[in-house]
Amino acid sequence: xxxxxxxxxxxxxxxxxxxxxxxxxxxxxxxxxxxxxxxxxxxxxxxxxxxxxxxxxxxxxxxxxxxxxxxxxxxxxxxxxxxxxxxxxxxxxxxxxxxxxxxxxxxxxxxxxxxxxxxxxxxxxxxxxxxxxxxxxxxxxxxxxxxxxxxxxxxxxxxxxxxxxxxxxxxxxxxxxxxxxxxxxxxxxxxxxxxxxxxxxxxxxxxxxxxxxxxxxxxxxxxxxxxxxxxxxxxxxxxxxxxxxxxxxxxxxxxxxxxxxxxxxxxxxxxxxxxxxxxxxxxxxxxxxxxxxxxxxxxxxxxxxxxxxxxxxxxxxxxxxxxxxxxxxxxxxxxxxxxxxxxxxxxxxxxxxxxxxxxxxxxxxxxxxxxxxxxxxxxxxxxxxxxxxxxxxxxxxxxxxxxxxxxxxxxxxxxxxxxxxxxxxxxxxxxxxxxxxxxxxxxxxxxxxxx
Length: 451
Description:
Immunoglobulin-like, 4 domains, 4-stranded mixed β-sheet, 1 helix, about 45% strand
């Protein structure tokens, strides 16, 4: 304030004097300062480094004498992850993790020594791809019928990724994995299956996200449907004179009950009888040539059958044909081309003559072969995990007149070899523990599989 003060004398002659007085009002801290907003909003990535400023607080005070403010976070920051400078800058002073907490409601107080002002700051933690995918199950096993159409869902893969928007990719590997396809987390059939060609699929599922990978093994067993008609191996049979029994052989590529065969003579006759289960034909009437019609039916649903006309011719030799059974154990890692067994060494009766050897049953997928010397060899790589045993039926005839001599069943039992490397279910693991965790506490269960 400015004032003019006049002093005058009442005595004549009158005299006056004046002066100016300036009054300055000194400020005192009598007004409350205020934040520019009652609520502030800000967002920050969860991988933001400590020390980064995320918000500038704005405070005004009507007092002309600006008093120094101090800032304190009074609520909403239990683990001291945020700090405020004396200039009102809010910054990160501890690591944040969206998967632990995705939002903070901070209460911040500004104090000037007399007055306290409050505001709220809403901090949203934005997601980044920093969490590994987890394969919940390390092993899946499911059956599927060989008639299942393309596009059918087999199973749903259970994967956990704590990121807000998972970025993992799925991939399949394994022999013939292209018979299946992945759509999101769903495994579906991509091609029609045929159990007679392949009865089991063993797939490896890889779930990849940045540098992380987890693995699941998927076992798929193809269940048989009765879709294969039984077939006779031969309808023209030559026997030695005096033979009263011979085995009629038919095969069915189906599995289980579907391949159980029943034999039946189509016409009533006193010349023959046949065992309906084994196919053993009993010749009762000693003629030189026989003709008959034989039916074989499987036990599947629907039943399939085959009917053929047979010719049997008897020759002059008195030898009698029979079936010989021989068992052998073979390691699954036996090399292709290696010998399994030589027929002449297990049948002492095969001497002083030339013979023709033919595999007539049990080798539908061509894993074995036999040469002109009667040596049975491995033709394809064997796998104990896929097939554990084979029964190979070999027909032996005389090369001069092709008279039936003998049927040999070679039972090959595969033995397991350690040919599959163990696989860790998850290659990269990330775990979080409290610093005060007790010694001896379990951190994580490491899993591996070995087929």
